[in-house]
Specification:
Largest sheet: 5 strands, mixed
Number of strands: 22
Distance between the termini: 30 Å
Helix content: 25-40%
Shape: globular
Length: 454
Amino acid sequence: MSYSEEVAQTLEKVRDIVIRHRSPGSDFAVGSDIIDGIEHPVFTKMVPNLHALYKQSCEGPDLPFLVYQQERYSFVESYRMASQLAQALAHQYQIKKGERVAICSRNNPQWCLAYMAVTMLGAIVVPMNSWWQGSEMLFGLKDSGSKLLFADQQRIDLLSPHSAELEADIIAISPGADCKYPDINSIIEQGKKYGAFDPSEHPVAPDDDASIMYTSGSSGTPKGVLSSHRAILSAVYSWKFLKDVNEVLRPELHEPNPEFQLAILVNVPLFHVTGCHVIFLTSVHQRRKTVMMYKWNPEKALELIETERLSYIHGVPTMTWELMNSPRFASTDLRSLRNVQSGGAPRPPEHLSMMNEKFPSIVLPGLGYGLTETNALGATISGSMYLAKPASTGRACAPLTSISIQDENGELLEPNEVGEICIKGPSVMKGYWNRPEDTEKSLIDGWFHTGDLG
């Protein structure tokens, strides 16, 4: 059978599977709802907010969740610590619903706990670029109006020349010996005295504001992308939906009694939608162990694949290339590995051919396309379709996302015509923070105009 025939058969199977998976009796049942005056398809059985997602992860046997060097926290431990932190934020720092709290730090478990605590309160989390300089951090804090900042020592040092202009309180992550700010671990410990976290005291609706993530700012100052709980969760649930579809297409990926817990490597920054949503929050949803690196190193990554029994690798294509060309690759035990995804750049066809030869046959190669404004959801391609069309970025992520190619007048273009990629669905942002004109230009009738050509 030729690749084109195999792809045609695969597409037909995908259509049937998608129809079954989104039916009323499914965990991924799809209905419709009005969001900002526009009708969208939605998951009808999705949890209402991020706190409910965190709480749900504690159901069933307690499993390892956050792993970083010598630190290891289970799902139950992580939820308990985030709850104590939320209580401390509410009582000691008077953080209220809708107020902004920023995080700027190297990847570590405390980053994740801070994110959880802030969103549990209905406050708006602001994950800031940890590669920013002090002046850029100050801009992010002022632009978002953040009342509080979680920062590691390196970021605190970068901010110190701007301390006179700083209006936010600071809680330190991994502070140095002379740090004058309280340590996050001590704040978590203090949270115990306020009792158990009660979500009824902090009601959060699906369309309430959840996060502000800043764009790269390649033209002008970075723009804050405001997203709701529903937008983020719609993306997280969509990735689980696509995982289930892949397992139906390739039964060998489905393990009723798996030898190893699902586990993923955090080899990209948590402040980016890939790190935060595709890896961290999707791991909460799928009860997946999340293993963090201090910095990218292919030899260390291969060591972690073997020792932590990782099943997922997700990063830019060059990372996979470096793995395959490492002198350690051939001797690494890869039997836990199931999925090698990439995004942020196209993967050269010869790179994909090499992956198909070097990785075990069980490994599913894939590529995705998404933006901060869509909470990383957009298009995806994997398996036989990817091998047949290695230059393609795939199709719109089922079952909620729509993609169109439009001309400068907003008219739909025909196949093989080049125009602007536009994305519609409940995962699309609410708008740019305090930038109504930019929002009006980018969001038209529910379609987000990406500025990218396709």
